[in-house]
Design a protein that fits this description.
alpha+beta; 3 domains
C-alpha cells in the first residue's frame, strides 16, 4: 500500500467518527444550554415556527466551536483505537512507520480544522451570537399569550382589566363582561358592563376586538376648571358596542441590535483590542483625575481665610491657637466637609476603577477564548490519538467513557480557572490557558508511551510486575 493511500485511509477513518461525535455533542449541549435552560421563556407566548427556527438555528451554530475539541478527542480515540484493535496500527509500525508518521495526515487535518475554528470564532460566531442574544432578549420581553379565565380579573393587557363571567364552548362567546379602561391614567374612570359579547382578535392579531351587547358604559369626566370636588359622570346605555384593545405587548418587538454589540462575544479580536484601549484610557483618566484632585484640593488648607492652597508650611497648633471660638468652629466644619468630600471622591474613583477593570478583564478573557479553543483541538488530539493506540479499543464503548472523562476534566479545569480570572486572582492570559498548560504534558507523555508500545492500561502487565516483586522478596 502506498503512503498516499495510507493517508487517505487514515483520514477516512477519522472523519466519520468526528462528524458523528460533533453532531451528538452539539445536540446534547443544545438540549442542556438552550432547550432546558430557556424552555420557560418559549412556552405560552404564541411564537411562530419561523421565529423559533431562527433562534434554534442561531444557537445551534453558536454551540459548534465549544464542541469541536470534544469531537476531536472522541474521534481520535475511536479512530486509532479501532486501528489498534484490528492490528492495522501494528502492521503499519512493522512496515517501518513510526507513530508520528502514522498520525501526520490526521494531525495536518487537525491543524486545518483549528485554523477554520479560529476563522469561525473571529468572524462568524460574533454575528451569530448577536442575532441569537438579541432575538432571545425580545422573546423574553414578550408577554405570554392571552388566556382569560372565567370569573377571574385579567390585567395582563396594559391599561385594561377584564373579567368574563362565562365563556362559550367556542371560546369566543362571553357573558357577564366587565371592562375597566385605564388609558387616561386616572384610575377606573371608564367602566363597561355587558350581559354578553363576542371576543376575537383582528386579522393582523394587533387588536383584541370585543363586541358587547346590552350593557352600560360609565365615564367620569375631568371638570374644565380642574376642581377635584365634583366630577361629572357620563352614562351610555347601548345595545351593541365594539371595543378595540391594542395587543402590542403580546407581539414580538425587535430591539436595535447595536445595543447588544458591545459585549466581547459579539466582537472579533480587533474590535476587542480597540475596546481594551478605550477601557485603559478611561482607567488612566480616572487615576489622573484623582491625582489632580489630590494636588489642588485634598492638600489645600481648610481655613476660611485662605482662598488658595498653602504654599508654605504653618505650625497648625499655633495657627489654631490664635483663633477665637467662632473662627475655630468654622475651620473645623470646613475641614470635616473637605474630608467627607475627599473620602467620597476617592471611594467613587475606586468603585469605578473596579468596574472598568472587571470590564477590561472580560474583554481579555473573550480575546483569549477565541484563540485557545483552536489550540485545544491540537492538544486534545495528542491526548486522544495515543490513548486510542494504547487502549486498543474502537467503537462506542470504552473510547466514549475515556473521552468523556478527559473532556469533563478539561471542562472543570476551564471553569475553575475562568472563575479565578473573573475574581482577579489570575491574569487572563494565565487563567484562560492554564487547562491547556496542564493537558499538554499529559499529551506528550501519552504520545511517548504510545510511540514505544507501552502497556499503560494493560492490567495483566501490572499484575505480572507485582508478582515478580513478591517472587524476588521470597
Amino acid at each position: 500500500m502506498s503512503l498516499k493511500k495510507l493517508h487517505n485511509l487514515l483520514i477516512k477513518s477519522f472523519l466519520p467518527p468526528f462528524a458523528i461525535s460533533l453532531f451528538v455533542s452539539v445536540f446534547l449541549f443544545f438540549l442542556v444550554e438552550v432547550v432546558i435552560t430557556y424552555l420557560d421563556d418559549f412556552i405560552g407566548k404564541g411564537l411562530s415556527f419561523w421565529t423559533l427556527s431562527k433562534l434554534f438555528f442561531f444557537f445551534w451554530i453558536a454551540i459548534i466551536p465549544q464542541c469541536i475539541p470534544l469531537a476531536v478527542l472522541l474521534a481520535s480515540i475511536m479512530c486509532f483505537g479501532n486501528l489498534a484493535e484490528n492490528y492495522e496500527l501494528a502492521a503499519m509500525k512493522s512496515s517501518g512507520l513510526s507513530l508520528f508518521k502514522i498520525i501526520k495526515p490526521v494531525f495536518i487535518l487537525i491543524l486545518i480544522l483549528a485554523g477554520l475554528t479560529f476563522v469561525f470564532n473571529n468572524y462568524i460566531l460574533p454575528k451569530v451570537t448577536l442575532l441569537s442574544q438579541s432575538l432571545l432578549w425580545d422573546i423574553r420581553q414578550t408577554k405570554p399569550a392571552m388566556k382569560i379565565k372565567e370569573g377571574i380579573f385579567y390585567n395582563e393587557i396594559e391599561n385594561y382589566t377584564l373579567k368574563v363571567g362565562k365563556k362559550g364552548k367556542d371560546e369566543h362567546s362571553i357573558r357577564d363582561v366587565i371592562i375597566y379602561d385605564h388609558t387616561s391614567r386616572l384610575g377606573n374612570d371608564i367602566q363597561l358592563y355587558a350581559d354578553s359579547g363576542y371576543m376575537n382578535t383582528s386579522v393582523d392579531t394587533n387588536y383584541l376586538v370585543i363586541k358587547l351587547s346590552n350593557g352600560n358604559r360609565y365615564e367620569e369626566l375631568v371638570p374644565e376648571n380642574g376642581s377635584k370636588l365634583t366630577k361629572p359622570l357620563m352614562q351610555l346605555n347601548f345595545k351593541e358596542l365594539v371595543v378595540n384593545i391594542a395587543l402590542t405587548d403580546f407581539k414580538l418587538k425587535r430591539t436595535d441590535q447595536n445595543l447588544f454589540a458591545h459585549h466581547n462575544e459579539m466582537m472579533n479580536i480587533w474590535q476587542i483590542d480597540h475596546e481594551l484601549d478605550t477601557a485603559d484610557i478611561k482607567l488612566q483618566g480616572r487615576y489622573k483625575d484623582l491625582q489632580t484632585q489630590a494636588k489642588y484640593y485634598f492638600c489645600a488648607r481648610t481655613s476660611f481665610r485662605l482662598k488658595s492652597p498653602m504654599k508654605i508650611v504653618y505650625n497648625i497648633q499655633k495657627f489654631y491657637g490664635g483663633l477665637n471660638a467662632e473662627e475655630y468652629k468654622r475651620c473645623m466644619d470646613a475641614a470635616l466637609n473637605f474630608a467627607r468630600g475627599s473620602t467620597g471622591f476617592i471611594d467613587s474613583t475606586n468603585e469605578n476603577a473596579k468596574i472598568e477593570t472587571s470590564i477590561s478583564t472580560e474583554y481579555k478573557m473573550g480575546w483569549h477564548e477565541k484563540i485557545n479553543v483552536c489550540f485545544a483541538c491540537i492538544v486534545l488530539f495528542f491526548v486522544g490519538a495515543p490513548l486510542g493506540a494504547i487502549i486498543r479499543k474502537g467503537g462506542l464503548g470504552l473510547p466514549v467513557v475515556v473521552a468523556v472523562f478527559f473532556f469533563l476534566a478539561y471542562f472543570i479545569f476551564t471553569e475553575v480557572f475562568k472563575n479565578l480570572t473573573i475574581e482577579g486572582v489570575l491574569e487572563p492570559w494565565i487563567g484562560m490557558w492554564m487547562p491547556l498548560y496542564l493537558f499538554l504534558p499529559l499529551g506528550m507523555f501519552l504520545t511517548y508511551k504510545a510511540a514505544n508500545d507501552s502497556a499503560l492500561f494493560d492490567i495483566d502487565s501490572y499484575i505480572q510486575t507485582i508478582k515478580k516483586i513478591f517472587i524476588r522478596k521470597k
